Amino acid sequence: MREVISLITLESLNLYTLFPMIILCAGALFIICVDICKKELSRNFYTCVSMLFLAAALICVVSFGDKNESGFFDMITIDGISKLSQIIIIAASLLFVPLALCKKEFFEHKFAEYFALLLFAAAGFLFMVSTTNLILIFIGLETASLCLYTMIAMHNRAKSIEAALKYFTMGALASGFYAFGAMIFYALSANADINEIFLTLSMNNFEPLFSVILALSMMLGAIGFKLSLIPFHTWMPDVYEGSPAPLAGYISIAPKVAAFAVTVRIFEPFILDGVIWAENIFYILAVVTMTLANLMALVQTDVKRMLSFSSMSHAAFILCAVLAGTKQANSAVFVYWMLFMFTNMGAFALLWAARNDANLYDTRFQHPFVKFSGLIKTAPVTAVLMALFLLSLAGIPPFSVFWGKIYIMSAVINDGYIVLAVIMAVNSAIAAYYYLKLIVYMFLAEPSEKDGKIYVQNASLTVSAVVGIAAGITLAAVLLVEPVMKMSEYFL
């Protein structure tokens, strides 16, 4: 025993692989400690501190370069998937934090814990994408999820508390699915590492088949919840509706990127190994989610709920790349996420700027389509920027998301999924309708009799900066997409 203990050195643990998570956890603890010592500090201070720690974590991730390393008893894996996912998650967090500095100070922004919870949530997501160990993935998943539940409830509105409870209830069910699936995998392989589990199952010719299918089904239920795949999507529209717009935008990106990284690690080996039933499950799930999400988005009367179904469709679109499983497909996935992140956060930031306490246009919704009637006349800059983000989400060239869709469809076609590519193209055409519907309201309808000044009620310099950055990248995507693709291939 003494000999074994003596072999464990600090160098062998390679704690450097944990630095991004350590930085974020240290930042969260620092915020809590400062708040205990000095209560009267403003949200400006906590916003700046949060951004500093997030920037430090981002620099740490980028410094990994193209090196693939493992650490902490091989439970932490720093590879291409890990590095690209961490970059997107931290970048989304950096876009989200400044939106707290809107003109009006909302209830949650009065508490330092809100900013600490964000850093803990980001750290949880980083743990999820930086390991192949089922136990550590579960710890990261629960850490991030519990933080998000609390952040939603802190908005202190009846709908926010309802949304947090729904998210928590469905999240608990998903955690049960994950734990049950992980238990079966461990029983079949006596290992908690994803790579070792797959190796053991393939050596046994995936027998007993019923147990393997059951384990994968449980995992798919857990991952499907985070990706809001049908039929695991029921929580999503209500959670988006009850959450503050910036947090809804963040939920549409960070948890999904983390879930996709886990999806690639768990399911892609089965598909690449030619397991037909696994491939068929993913094929059906992607097509059904993509199609039904678009059809449900068509009948929405609230912009935020429409964007929730839209993000479901985008998640299913990206899921198609998992079927291909090639390096080109994986690179396309991360390019898509990077481009989608800026566009979607820009759209939700504009909704945040347009927020008002009184539901002037609808008894239930804060952002009904009618609210944006004639926006080009009452707030032309807001109308043009929102139209830019909507055209990008619709995949209209030359805006950013178009290039992500082209890369993914190209990877799918190159792998022989011609019919799937046609279905993706048809769904993109369907999606264009509900995006253009809002543009028609903004540019062709007559302004509402309500006060048009509400469209910029919460706009501030920082909110405008986030929208400006998002709009700039959405417009410049034609110049940026090739370097982003090369960076993705470099890390992978």
List keywords for this structure.
two-stranded antiparallel ribbon; globular; mainly alpha; 492 residues
Any overview of this molecule?
This protein has one domain. The longest helix is centred in the middle third of the chain and has 32 residues. The protein has 22 helices and two strands. Helix 4 runs parallel beside helix 6 and helix 8 packs antiparallel against helix 10. Strands 1-2 form a two-stranded antiparallel ribbon. It is an all-alpha fold.
Can I get a quick summary?
The chain is mainly alpha-helical and 492 residues long. It has helices spanning 2-7, 10-13, 19-37, 43-62, 80-96, 112-129, 134-153, 158-189, 194-203, 209-227, 236-242, 245-251, 254-272, 276-298, 303-324, 327-353, 375-378, 380-393, 400-414, 418-444, 461-475, 477-491, and strands at 69-71, 76-78.
Can you list the strand order of the major beta sheet? 1-2
Low-confidence runs: none
Class based on secondary structure composition and strand pairing: mainly alpha
Please summarize the sheet with the most strands. 2 strands, antiparallel
Roughly how much helix do the residues carry, as a percent range?
over 70%
In round numbers, the mean pLDDT is 84
- Overall spatial form: globular
Distance between the termini: 39 Å
- Element-level helix/strand string: HHHHEEHHHHHHHHHHHHHHHHHH
Radius of gyration: 22 Å
Count of the separate structural domains:
1
Total count of strands: 2
> Regarding quaternary structure, how should these chains be classified?
single chain
Helical element count?
A: 22
Percentage of residues in DSSP E strands: under 5%
